[in-house]
Amino acid sequence: MTAEFPIRRLHDALDGAAVRALRRQDSIAIAVSGGLDSSILAALIAQHADVTVQLVTVSVPGAVDSQRARLLAEHLGRPLLEVVMTAPRLEALLPEIVPLIGTSRVDPARAQEWGIPPESAFVSPLLTGWEVPLFVAAREARPYAKRLVVGQGADEWFGGYARYAGLEGDELILALDRDREALDRDVLPVEARIGKHHAVQVHYPYLDAGVRGVARNLPPSALVDGADRKVALREVARILGLPEAIVSVPKTAAQYGSGVAGLLAGLAKKAGLHQNEYLTRMLTSAGSASSTTSARSA
Fold first, then answer.
1. What pLDDT does residue 231 have?
2. Residue 53 exposed, middle or buried by CB count within 10 Å (0-12, 13-18, 19+)
3. What HEC string does the chain produce?
4. Does some domain include residue 103?
């Protein structure tokens, strides 16, 4: 991916989305992991910052996300709020988080594996682990800003997931389209509830209409080229002068990079339950009825 025009056009579209994120804001918070997606947004917003910018990261002690977030904050010269997650803290938060996640239907093959009725309703550990860092970032960001900028959508629009590696042409486009639909259907409604819960607007520059328009017109090889993923975004990061340790970092899902997945697994094991059952038991009948949603996957 060496063509200058598409990369510059993508840079400009993302820059425009960053400007719109700042509109009518005296201060803004950015959820960062030190990964590629959030780092690009932080770098772009920092260039325009006539408002106060607060970076927020959420992870267990020593997690890779916290190390990369510190590198990013130092590079940009912006303050970083590090929120340390521990098993007791997660355990205390889950009864508040789980009703916002809601239930999903387990895949029939998984139901057979787990010995439960097909199409049983349960709370997805995958979706819960994914959303815990956002929930905590929104809570902690509220004293600083009314808007929290997140990197959600970059994987679906620019080919970030490991399952895209090696896909080409129509096969890649179909996979991206399926994941974009799942994002809209399964994830964004949960995050809207999380934002409302904390009186914070969750803002998605990668879902900006201009950015999506550029993404749709990029050739598939600008998204995935063999084993390389998010090819075009990495070039934008280089234009922005981000450290190579951030530019070239492999994709790490939020629940793993933050260490939340490990905490959740440990809590369920301590309770002697499968993670699905552990989380589902936290739902009251009222909470279950009011916040049902389909998870991205079991």
1. 93
2. buried
3. CCCHHHHHHHHHHHHHHHHHHHCCCCEEEEECCCCHHHHHHHHHHHHCCCCEEEEEEEECCCCHHHHHHHHHHHHHCCCEEEEECCHHHHHHHHHHHHHHHCCEECCHHHHHHHCCCCCCEECCHHHHHHHHHHHHHHHHHCCCCCEEECCCCHHHHHCCCHHHCCCCHHHHHHHHHHHHHHHHHHHHHHHHHHHHHHCCEEECHHHCHHHHHHHHHCCHHHCEECCEECHHHHHHHHHCCCCHHHHCCCCCCHHHHCCHHHHHHHHHHHHCCCHHHHHHCCCCHHHHHHCCCCCCCC
4. no
Tell me the whole-structure pTM to 2 decimals.
0.87
Question: Which stretches of the chain drop beneath a pLDDT of 50?
Answer: 1-3, 285-298
Domain harbouring 29, CATH code: 3.40.50.620
pLDDT tens sequence across 70-123: 999 999 999 999 999 999 999 999 999 999 998 877 767 766 776 767 777 788
Domain-embedded: residue 267: no
Q: pLDDT at position 63, please?
A: 80
For the chain, the C-alpha Rg in angstroms (whole number) is 19
Q: Could you list the residue range(s) of the whole structural domain that residue 171 is in?
A: 4-87+132-253
Model pLDDT, residue 277: 85
